[in-house]
Amino acid sequence: MARALINLPRTARRGEVIEIRTLIQHVMETGYRPGADGVVVPRDIITRFTCLYNNEEIFAAELAPAIAANPFLSFSTVATESGILAFTWTGDNGFEQTETRSLTVT
Amino acid sequence: MSSPSSLRLSIERRALGAGLLAVALLRPARAERPGLREAVLGFTGGKEPSEGGITLDIPPLVENGNTVPVTIAVESPMTEEDHVRRIALFNERNPQPHVITAQIGPRAGRARLSTRMRLATSQRLVAVAELSDGSYRSASAEVIVTLAACVEG
Amino acid sequence: MRRVLLALLLAGAASAEPRQSGFELMSPGTQAMQRDDSANPGMLWVEEGRALWDSTGCASCHGDVARMRGVAARYPAWDAASGGPTDLAGRIAQCQEARQHRTPFPRESAEALALAAVIGLQSRGMPISPPEDPRLAPALARGEALYRERRGQLDLSCAQCHDANAGRHLAGSPIPEAHPTGYPLYRLEWQGMGSLQRRLRNCMAGVRSEPYAYGAPEYAAIELFLMRRAAGMPLETPAVRP
Protein backbone atom coordinates (compact mmCIF):
# COMPACT_ATOMS: atom_id res chain seq x y z
CA MET A 1 0.00 0.00 0.00
CA ALA A 2 1.27 3.43 -0.90
CA ARG A 3 1.75 5.95 1.88
CA ALA A 4 -0.68 8.86 1.73
CA LEU A 5 -0.82 12.10 3.69
CA ILE A 6 -4.14 13.86 4.06
CA ASN A 7 -4.39 17.19 5.77
CA LEU A 8 -7.72 18.69 6.81
CA PRO A 9 -9.05 20.11 10.06
CA ARG A 10 -10.68 17.64 12.46
CA THR A 11 -13.41 20.09 13.33
CA ALA A 12 -15.02 22.95 11.46
CA ARG A 13 -17.95 25.30 11.87
CA ARG A 14 -21.00 24.67 9.69
CA GLY A 15 -20.65 26.63 6.47
CA GLU A 16 -16.90 27.10 6.83
CA VAL A 17 -14.78 26.51 3.72
CA ILE A 18 -12.03 24.06 4.64
CA GLU A 19 -8.87 23.33 2.67
CA ILE A 20 -7.90 19.72 2.00
CA ARG A 21 -4.38 18.71 0.96
CA THR A 22 -3.41 15.25 -0.20
CA LEU A 23 -0.06 13.66 -1.06
CA ILE A 24 0.40 10.05 -2.15
CA GLN A 25 3.52 8.02 -2.88
CA HIS A 26 3.52 7.14 -6.59
CA VAL A 27 6.22 7.21 -9.30
CA MET A 28 3.91 8.66 -11.99
CA GLU A 29 5.99 6.99 -14.71
CA THR A 30 5.17 9.01 -17.81
CA GLY A 31 5.43 6.35 -20.50
CA TYR A 32 7.73 8.62 -22.49
CA ARG A 33 10.98 8.01 -20.65
CA PRO A 34 13.57 5.58 -21.99
CA GLY A 35 15.07 3.33 -19.31
CA ALA A 36 18.76 2.52 -18.90
CA ASP A 37 18.44 -0.09 -21.68
CA GLY A 38 17.01 2.47 -24.11
CA VAL A 39 13.55 0.88 -24.08
CA VAL A 40 10.68 3.19 -23.12
CA VAL A 41 9.40 2.42 -19.60
CA PRO A 42 5.65 1.69 -19.79
CA ARG A 43 3.26 4.29 -18.39
CA ASP A 44 2.30 3.81 -14.74
CA ILE A 45 0.33 6.77 -13.40
CA ILE A 46 -2.60 7.61 -11.18
CA THR A 47 -5.34 8.58 -13.62
CA ARG A 48 -8.14 9.62 -11.31
CA PHE A 49 -8.71 11.01 -7.83
CA THR A 50 -12.04 11.45 -6.07
CA CYS A 51 -13.16 12.86 -2.74
CA LEU A 52 -16.51 11.75 -1.33
CA TYR A 53 -18.11 13.59 1.59
CA ASN A 54 -20.66 11.29 3.23
CA ASN A 55 -20.79 9.35 -0.05
CA GLU A 56 -21.39 12.38 -2.23
CA GLU A 57 -18.64 13.31 -4.68
CA ILE A 58 -17.41 16.83 -3.92
CA PHE A 59 -14.19 16.79 -5.96
CA ALA A 60 -12.74 14.65 -8.74
CA ALA A 61 -9.70 15.03 -10.99
CA GLU A 62 -8.33 13.33 -14.10
CA LEU A 63 -4.53 13.23 -14.01
CA ALA A 64 -2.16 13.09 -17.01
CA PRO A 65 1.52 12.04 -17.05
CA ALA A 66 2.39 15.75 -16.59
CA ILE A 67 1.43 15.50 -12.91
CA ALA A 68 4.60 15.27 -10.80
CA ALA A 69 5.64 12.11 -8.95
CA ASN A 70 4.04 11.69 -5.51
CA PRO A 71 0.98 13.67 -6.61
CA PHE A 72 -0.09 16.64 -4.52
CA LEU A 73 -3.62 18.01 -4.70
CA SER A 74 -5.17 20.84 -2.75
CA PHE A 75 -8.85 21.79 -2.98
CA SER A 76 -11.65 22.92 -0.72
CA THR A 77 -15.12 22.04 0.49
CA VAL A 78 -17.87 23.59 2.60
CA ALA A 79 -18.23 21.89 5.98
CA THR A 80 -21.92 20.93 5.86
CA GLU A 81 -22.30 18.12 8.42
CA SER A 82 -20.19 15.78 10.52
CA GLY A 83 -19.15 12.65 8.72
CA ILE A 84 -16.56 10.81 6.70
CA LEU A 85 -14.46 12.03 3.80
CA ALA A 86 -13.20 9.25 1.54
CA PHE A 87 -10.24 9.84 -0.78
CA THR A 88 -9.64 7.40 -3.64
CA TRP A 89 -6.76 7.27 -6.09
CA THR A 90 -7.04 4.92 -9.08
CA GLY A 91 -4.58 4.33 -11.88
CA ASP A 92 -2.64 2.08 -14.23
CA ASN A 93 -1.88 -1.55 -13.38
CA GLY A 94 -4.92 -1.83 -11.15
CA PHE A 95 -3.76 0.82 -8.70
CA GLU A 96 -6.51 1.69 -6.24
CA GLN A 97 -6.28 3.11 -2.77
CA THR A 98 -8.85 4.66 -0.47
CA GLU A 99 -8.21 6.59 2.73
CA THR A 100 -10.87 8.02 5.02
CA ARG A 101 -10.88 10.86 7.54
CA SER A 102 -13.62 12.01 9.84
CA LEU A 103 -14.75 15.61 10.17
CA THR A 104 -16.77 16.99 13.05
CA VAL A 105 -18.94 19.97 12.16
CA THR A 106 -20.19 22.17 14.97
CA MET B 1 18.79 6.38 -13.14
CA SER B 2 17.97 9.21 -15.46
CA SER B 3 15.36 11.88 -15.03
CA PRO B 4 11.88 10.58 -15.86
CA SER B 5 11.24 13.31 -18.37
CA SER B 6 10.99 13.06 -22.10
CA LEU B 7 13.91 12.12 -24.29
CA ARG B 8 13.70 15.63 -25.62
CA LEU B 9 14.56 17.07 -22.24
CA SER B 10 17.76 15.06 -22.03
CA ILE B 11 18.71 16.11 -25.55
CA GLU B 12 18.07 19.76 -24.75
CA ARG B 13 20.06 19.36 -21.58
CA ARG B 14 23.10 18.28 -23.52
CA ALA B 15 22.61 20.50 -26.54
CA LEU B 16 21.59 23.73 -24.92
CA GLY B 17 22.87 23.60 -21.37
CA ALA B 18 23.47 27.05 -20.00
CA GLY B 19 22.36 28.65 -23.24
CA LEU B 20 18.75 27.66 -22.65
CA LEU B 21 17.99 30.52 -20.31
CA ALA B 22 19.35 33.12 -22.71
CA VAL B 23 17.55 31.53 -25.65
CA ALA B 24 14.28 31.50 -23.76
CA LEU B 25 14.63 35.16 -22.87
CA LEU B 26 15.40 36.17 -26.44
CA ARG B 27 12.69 34.07 -28.03
CA PRO B 28 10.11 36.38 -29.60
CA ALA B 29 6.42 36.21 -28.74
CA ARG B 30 4.84 33.46 -30.77
CA ALA B 31 1.50 31.89 -31.52
CA GLU B 32 0.34 28.94 -29.43
CA ARG B 33 1.17 25.53 -30.81
CA PRO B 34 -1.74 23.78 -32.51
CA GLY B 35 -1.74 20.95 -29.92
CA LEU B 36 -2.37 23.38 -27.08
CA ARG B 37 -5.12 25.28 -28.88
CA GLU B 38 -6.84 22.07 -29.97
CA ALA B 39 -6.75 20.77 -26.41
CA VAL B 40 -8.32 23.98 -25.07
CA LEU B 41 -11.02 23.99 -27.74
CA GLY B 42 -11.60 20.29 -27.13
CA PHE B 43 -12.35 21.12 -23.50
CA THR B 44 -14.64 24.06 -24.35
CA GLY B 45 -16.42 22.25 -27.17
CA GLY B 46 -15.14 24.81 -29.64
CA LYS B 47 -16.16 27.88 -27.64
CA GLU B 48 -13.65 30.69 -27.30
CA PRO B 49 -12.88 31.28 -23.60
CA SER B 50 -12.87 34.85 -22.31
CA GLU B 51 -9.98 36.31 -20.38
CA GLY B 52 -10.21 37.60 -16.81
CA GLY B 53 -11.77 36.26 -13.63
CA ILE B 54 -9.26 33.42 -13.48
CA THR B 55 -5.64 33.33 -12.32
CA LEU B 56 -2.90 30.84 -13.12
CA ASP B 57 -0.19 31.06 -10.50
CA ILE B 58 3.11 29.38 -11.38
CA PRO B 59 6.70 30.58 -10.83
CA PRO B 60 7.94 32.36 -13.97
CA LEU B 61 11.36 30.75 -13.47
CA VAL B 62 11.45 27.22 -12.07
CA GLU B 63 14.43 25.43 -10.52
CA ASN B 64 13.48 21.96 -11.62
CA GLY B 65 10.89 20.99 -14.19
CA ASN B 66 10.12 17.74 -12.40
CA THR B 67 7.99 19.30 -9.67
CA VAL B 68 6.48 22.72 -10.33
CA PRO B 69 3.79 24.04 -7.95
CA VAL B 70 0.79 25.47 -9.78
CA THR B 71 -2.46 27.02 -8.51
CA ILE B 72 -5.56 27.94 -10.49
CA ALA B 73 -8.21 30.17 -8.89
CA VAL B 74 -11.47 31.36 -10.43
CA GLU B 75 -13.54 34.30 -9.20
CA SER B 76 -16.95 32.83 -8.48
CA PRO B 77 -19.57 33.01 -5.70
CA MET B 78 -19.77 29.18 -5.93
CA THR B 79 -23.53 29.08 -5.40
CA GLU B 80 -26.07 26.67 -6.93
CA GLU B 81 -26.95 29.31 -9.51
CA ASP B 82 -23.46 30.57 -10.30
CA HIS B 83 -20.43 28.33 -9.91
CA VAL B 84 -17.45 26.75 -11.61
CA ARG B 85 -18.07 23.22 -12.91
CA ARG B 86 -14.63 22.23 -14.17
CA ILE B 87 -11.07 23.53 -14.12
CA ALA B 88 -8.47 22.24 -16.59
CA LEU B 89 -4.80 22.89 -17.23
CA PHE B 90 -3.01 22.45 -20.55
CA ASN B 91 0.61 22.82 -21.66
CA GLU B 92 2.36 23.47 -24.90
CA ARG B 93 5.57 21.47 -25.04
CA ASN B 94 5.21 18.35 -22.93
CA PRO B 95 4.55 15.16 -24.93
CA GLN B 96 0.80 15.54 -24.15
CA PRO B 97 -1.09 18.84 -23.78
CA HIS B 98 -3.33 17.70 -20.91
CA VAL B 99 -2.17 18.14 -17.31
CA ILE B 100 -5.27 17.88 -15.11
CA THR B 101 -9.03 18.34 -15.23
CA ALA B 102 -10.93 18.80 -11.97
CA GLN B 103 -14.69 18.58 -11.40
CA ILE B 104 -15.92 20.86 -8.66
CA GLY B 105 -19.21 22.51 -7.76
CA PRO B 106 -21.00 24.72 -5.26
CA ARG B 107 -19.95 22.42 -2.42
CA ALA B 108 -16.31 23.39 -3.00
CA GLY B 109 -17.00 26.85 -1.53
CA ARG B 110 -14.00 28.20 -3.41
CA ALA B 111 -12.96 27.61 -7.01
CA ARG B 112 -9.32 26.93 -6.35
CA LEU B 113 -7.03 24.01 -7.19
CA SER B 114 -3.34 23.44 -6.47
CA THR B 115 -1.09 20.66 -7.72
CA ARG B 116 2.49 20.04 -8.88
CA MET B 117 3.36 19.40 -12.48
CA ARG B 118 6.18 18.44 -14.81
CA LEU B 119 7.54 20.79 -17.43
CA ALA B 120 9.75 19.17 -20.08
CA THR B 121 11.06 22.58 -21.09
CA SER B 122 10.27 26.30 -21.05
CA GLN B 123 6.77 26.79 -22.40
CA ARG B 124 3.31 28.30 -22.22
CA LEU B 125 0.49 27.00 -19.99
CA VAL B 126 -3.23 27.66 -20.28
CA ALA B 127 -5.80 27.19 -17.50
CA VAL B 128 -9.48 27.03 -18.48
CA ALA B 129 -12.59 27.11 -16.27
CA GLU B 130 -16.07 25.98 -17.27
CA LEU B 131 -18.80 27.98 -15.53
CA SER B 132 -22.33 26.86 -14.68
CA ASP B 133 -23.79 29.15 -17.38
CA GLY B 134 -21.79 27.25 -20.01
CA SER B 135 -19.21 29.98 -20.54
CA TYR B 136 -15.45 29.52 -20.34
CA ARG B 137 -12.62 31.63 -18.95
CA SER B 138 -8.91 31.17 -19.48
CA ALA B 139 -5.58 32.47 -18.24
CA SER B 140 -2.10 31.73 -19.53
CA ALA B 141 1.46 31.90 -18.26
CA GLU B 142 4.93 31.62 -19.74
CA VAL B 143 7.40 29.55 -17.71
CA ILE B 144 11.16 29.29 -18.04
CA VAL B 145 12.68 26.04 -16.82
CA THR B 146 16.30 26.08 -15.68
CA LEU B 147 18.30 22.88 -15.49
CA ALA B 148 19.63 21.17 -12.40
CA ALA B 149 23.39 20.84 -12.02
CA CYS B 150 25.13 17.57 -11.12
CA VAL B 151 22.46 15.05 -12.01
CA GLU B 152 22.72 11.29 -12.25
CA GLY B 153 24.13 9.62 -15.34
CA MET C 1 36.90 21.01 -20.54
CA ARG C 2 37.58 22.64 -17.18
CA ARG C 3 37.72 26.03 -18.81
CA VAL C 4 34.31 25.40 -20.34
CA LEU C 5 32.89 24.56 -16.94
CA LEU C 6 34.52 27.49 -15.22
CA ALA C 7 33.16 29.75 -17.93
CA LEU C 8 29.72 28.63 -16.80
CA LEU C 9 30.39 29.92 -13.30
CA LEU C 10 28.62 33.20 -13.74
CA ALA C 11 29.33 35.90 -11.24
CA GLY C 12 26.87 36.07 -8.36
CA ALA C 13 26.66 37.79 -5.02
CA ALA C 14 28.50 35.90 -2.31
CA SER C 15 26.65 35.58 0.99
CA ALA C 16 27.61 37.82 3.89
CA GLU C 17 26.49 35.13 6.39
CA PRO C 18 29.26 32.92 7.70
CA ARG C 19 27.44 29.75 6.69
CA GLN C 20 24.33 29.23 4.63
CA SER C 21 22.06 26.21 4.23
CA GLY C 22 21.08 25.31 0.68
CA PHE C 23 17.54 26.09 1.85
CA GLU C 24 18.33 29.80 1.60
CA LEU C 25 19.15 29.47 -2.11
CA MET C 26 15.83 27.88 -3.04
CA SER C 27 12.82 29.58 -4.58
CA PRO C 28 10.00 30.59 -2.21
CA GLY C 29 7.85 27.79 -3.66
CA THR C 30 10.40 25.08 -2.89
CA GLN C 31 11.05 26.57 0.56
CA ALA C 32 7.30 26.43 1.24
CA MET C 33 7.28 22.78 0.17
CA GLN C 34 9.90 21.97 2.83
CA ARG C 35 8.39 24.11 5.58
CA ASP C 36 4.90 22.67 5.46
CA ASP C 37 4.72 19.03 6.54
CA SER C 38 1.42 18.60 4.68
CA ALA C 39 3.16 19.65 1.45
CA ASN C 40 6.60 18.10 1.99
CA PRO C 41 6.78 14.84 0.00
CA GLY C 42 9.61 13.68 2.27
CA MET C 43 6.96 13.19 4.95
CA LEU C 44 5.64 10.21 2.93
CA TRP C 45 8.94 8.45 3.68
CA VAL C 46 8.74 9.57 7.30
CA GLU C 47 5.32 7.93 7.60
CA GLU C 48 6.70 4.76 6.03
CA GLY C 49 9.57 4.88 8.53
CA ARG C 50 7.18 5.32 11.44
CA ALA C 51 5.34 2.15 10.36
CA LEU C 52 8.64 0.24 9.91
CA TRP C 53 9.87 1.41 13.32
CA ASP C 54 7.02 -0.51 14.89
CA SER C 55 6.67 -3.41 12.45
CA THR C 56 10.35 -4.36 12.27
CA GLY C 57 10.80 -4.30 16.02
CA CYS C 58 12.88 -1.13 16.54
CA ALA C 59 10.27 -0.05 19.08
CA SER C 60 10.71 -3.17 21.21
CA CYS C 61 14.20 -1.97 22.24
CA HIS C 62 14.09 1.79 21.66
CA GLY C 63 10.46 2.51 22.53
CA ASP C 64 8.70 5.35 20.79
CA VAL C 65 10.68 6.82 17.90
CA ALA C 66 10.43 10.21 19.64
CA ARG C 67 13.05 8.88 22.04
CA MET C 68 15.56 9.06 19.16
CA ARG C 69 15.58 12.84 19.57
CA GLY C 70 19.09 14.18 19.01
CA VAL C 71 20.49 10.93 17.66
CA ALA C 72 20.70 11.85 13.96
CA ALA C 73 22.52 15.08 14.84
CA ARG C 74 25.38 13.07 16.32
CA TYR C 75 26.42 11.15 13.19
CA PRO C 76 28.76 9.97 11.72
CA ALA C 77 29.81 8.25 14.93
CA TRP C 78 32.67 5.96 15.92
CA ASP C 79 32.04 2.35 15.00
CA ALA C 80 34.17 -0.17 16.85
CA ALA C 81 33.38 -2.98 14.42
CA SER C 82 34.85 -1.21 11.38
CA GLY C 83 37.34 0.90 13.33
CA GLY C 84 36.08 4.08 11.69
CA PRO C 85 33.09 6.36 11.35
CA THR C 86 29.65 5.04 10.44
CA ASP C 87 26.73 7.06 9.18
CA LEU C 88 23.21 6.71 10.58
CA ALA C 89 22.18 4.37 7.74
CA GLY C 90 25.17 2.15 8.55
CA ARG C 91 24.23 2.06 12.23
CA ILE C 92 20.62 1.12 11.41
CA ALA C 93 21.82 -1.71 9.15
CA GLN C 94 24.20 -2.90 11.87
CA CYS C 95 21.37 -2.92 14.41
CA GLN C 96 19.16 -4.90 12.05
CA GLU C 97 21.85 -7.49 11.47
CA ALA C 98 23.28 -7.86 14.97
CA ARG C 99 20.19 -7.37 17.13
CA GLN C 100 17.18 -8.06 14.93
CA HIS C 101 18.96 -10.95 13.16
CA ARG C 102 17.58 -9.94 9.81
CA THR C 103 19.05 -8.98 6.47
CA PRO C 104 19.42 -5.20 6.60
CA PHE C 105 17.43 -3.11 4.16
CA PRO C 106 19.82 -2.35 1.28
CA ARG C 107 21.35 1.12 1.24
CA GLU C 108 19.18 3.60 -0.66
CA SER C 109 16.17 1.26 -0.56
CA ALA C 110 12.85 2.96 0.23
CA GLU C 111 12.80 1.18 3.60
CA ALA C 112 16.33 2.22 4.61
CA LEU C 113 15.62 5.83 3.63
CA ALA C 114 12.30 5.75 5.47
CA LEU C 115 13.88 4.64 8.75
CA ALA C 116 16.67 7.21 8.44
CA ALA C 117 14.06 9.87 7.65
CA VAL C 118 11.85 9.20 10.68
CA ILE C 119 14.90 9.07 12.97
CA GLY C 120 16.26 12.24 11.36
CA LEU C 121 12.96 14.05 11.85
CA GLN C 122 13.24 13.57 15.63
CA SER C 123 16.29 15.87 15.58
CA ARG C 124 14.84 18.49 13.22
CA GLY C 125 15.82 21.96 14.37
CA MET C 126 18.57 20.67 16.65
CA PRO C 127 22.18 21.76 16.07
CA ILE C 128 24.34 19.36 14.11
CA SER C 129 26.87 18.03 16.61
CA PRO C 130 29.04 15.17 15.35
CA PRO C 131 31.04 13.61 18.20
CA GLU C 132 34.48 15.05 18.87
CA ASP C 133 35.92 11.60 19.34
CA PRO C 134 39.72 11.51 18.98
CA ARG C 135 39.44 8.06 17.38
CA LEU C 136 37.68 9.76 14.44
CA ALA C 137 40.61 12.13 13.80
CA PRO C 138 42.22 10.07 10.99
CA ALA C 139 38.86 9.70 9.18
CA LEU C 140 38.19 13.41 9.59
CA ALA C 141 41.55 14.24 8.03
CA ARG C 142 40.86 11.74 5.24
CA GLY C 143 37.45 13.32 4.65
CA GLU C 144 38.94 16.78 4.34
CA ALA C 145 41.65 15.49 1.98
CA LEU C 146 38.98 13.86 -0.21
CA TYR C 147 37.01 17.14 -0.20
CA ARG C 148 40.06 19.03 -1.46
CA GLU C 149 41.28 16.37 -3.89
CA ARG C 150 40.83 17.12 -7.58
CA ARG C 151 39.02 14.31 -9.37
CA GLY C 152 37.46 13.22 -12.63
CA GLN C 153 37.83 14.34 -16.22
CA LEU C 154 37.00 17.89 -15.17
CA ASP C 155 39.78 17.72 -12.54
CA LEU C 156 37.69 19.56 -9.96
CA SER C 157 37.61 19.18 -6.20
CA CYS C 158 34.51 19.58 -4.02
CA ALA C 159 36.15 22.69 -2.51
CA GLN C 160 36.62 24.40 -5.87
CA CYS C 161 32.85 24.62 -6.34
CA HIS C 162 31.49 24.60 -2.80
CA ASP C 163 34.09 26.82 -1.09
CA ALA C 164 35.64 28.95 -3.83
CA ASN C 165 32.46 29.48 -5.86
CA ALA C 166 29.62 28.95 -3.38
CA GLY C 167 26.80 31.42 -3.95
CA ARG C 168 27.64 31.74 -7.63
CA HIS C 169 25.89 29.84 -10.36
CA LEU C 170 26.64 26.71 -12.34
CA ALA C 171 24.50 27.36 -15.40
CA GLY C 172 21.07 28.15 -13.91
CA SER C 173 21.67 26.55 -10.51
CA PRO C 174 23.12 28.35 -7.49
CA ILE C 175 26.11 26.56 -5.96
CA PRO C 176 25.44 25.81 -2.28
CA GLU C 177 28.06 25.66 0.45
CA ALA C 178 27.57 21.89 0.71
CA HIS C 179 26.29 21.68 4.27
CA PRO C 180 24.47 18.33 4.50
CA THR C 181 21.80 19.68 6.85
CA GLY C 182 18.73 17.85 5.62
CA TYR C 183 19.50 14.24 4.65
CA PRO C 184 17.85 12.02 3.76
CA LEU C 185 16.04 14.58 1.63
CA TYR C 186 13.53 14.84 -1.19
CA ARG C 187 15.29 16.09 -4.31
CA LEU C 188 12.98 17.34 -7.04
CA GLU C 189 15.49 16.10 -9.60
CA TRP C 190 15.20 12.57 -8.18
CA GLN C 191 11.44 12.80 -7.68
CA GLY C 192 12.11 10.87 -4.53
CA MET C 193 14.08 10.55 -1.33
CA GLY C 194 17.83 10.05 -1.30
CA SER C 195 20.83 9.93 1.01
CA LEU C 196 23.91 12.14 1.17
CA GLN C 197 25.80 9.30 -0.51
CA ARG C 198 23.48 9.50 -3.51
CA ARG C 199 24.04 13.25 -3.66
CA LEU C 200 27.82 12.85 -3.44
CA ARG C 201 27.62 10.33 -6.27
CA ASN C 202 25.76 12.94 -8.36
CA CYS C 203 28.56 15.44 -7.72
CA MET C 204 31.19 12.85 -8.63
CA ALA C 205 29.34 12.05 -11.84
CA GLY C 206 29.11 15.81 -12.44
CA VAL C 207 32.90 16.15 -12.54
CA ARG C 208 33.07 12.94 -14.60
CA SER C 209 34.72 10.82 -11.94
CA GLU C 210 33.91 7.27 -10.92
CA PRO C 211 31.76 7.32 -7.74
CA TYR C 212 32.69 5.00 -4.89
CA ALA C 213 30.31 2.10 -4.24
CA TYR C 214 27.47 2.74 -1.79
CA GLY C 215 28.68 2.22 1.76
CA ALA C 216 32.35 2.86 0.88
CA PRO C 217 34.40 4.26 3.81
CA GLU C 218 35.24 7.33 1.70
CA TYR C 219 31.63 8.51 1.97
CA ALA C 220 31.61 8.21 5.75
CA ALA C 221 34.89 10.16 5.88
CA ILE C 222 33.54 12.95 3.62
CA GLU C 223 30.28 13.05 5.61
CA LEU C 224 32.24 13.30 8.84
CA PHE C 225 34.21 16.26 7.49
CA LEU C 226 31.09 17.97 6.11
CA MET C 227 29.07 17.47 9.32
CA ARG C 228 31.95 18.82 11.41
CA ARG C 229 32.09 21.79 9.01
CA ALA C 230 28.30 22.25 9.45
CA ALA C 231 28.38 21.78 13.26
CA GLY C 232 25.89 24.04 14.98
CA MET C 233 23.63 24.47 11.97
CA PRO C 234 20.09 23.17 12.52
CA LEU C 235 19.15 19.78 11.10
CA GLU C 236 16.37 20.04 8.47
CA THR C 237 15.48 16.39 7.79
CA PRO C 238 13.46 15.75 5.70
CA ALA C 239 14.65 18.67 3.57
CA VAL C 240 13.54 19.46 0.02
CA ARG C 241 16.10 20.49 -2.60
CA PRO C 242 15.88 21.15 -6.36
TrEMBL record, chain A:
| InterPro entries reported in the protein's UniProt record | Ig-like_fold, Ig_E-set, SoxZ, SoxZ_dom
Please, which domain of life does this record's source organism belong to?
Bacteria
Alphabetized Gene3D superfamilies for the sequence: Immunoglobulins
One Pfam family name is SoxZ
Specify the Sulphur oxidation protein SoxZ domain's residue ranges.
Answer: 9-100
| UniProt-recorded name of the protein | Thiosulfate oxidation carrier complex protein SoxZ
UniProtKB/TrEMBL annotation, chain B:
Q: Cite a single Pfam family from the UniProt record.
A: SoxY
List the InterPro entries hit by this protein, alphabetically.
SoxY, SoxY_para_1, SoxY_sf, Sulphur_oxidation_SoxY
Q: What is this protein called?
A: SoxY-related AACIE arm protein
Q: Please list the residue ranges annotated as the Ig-like SoxY domain.
A: 44-150
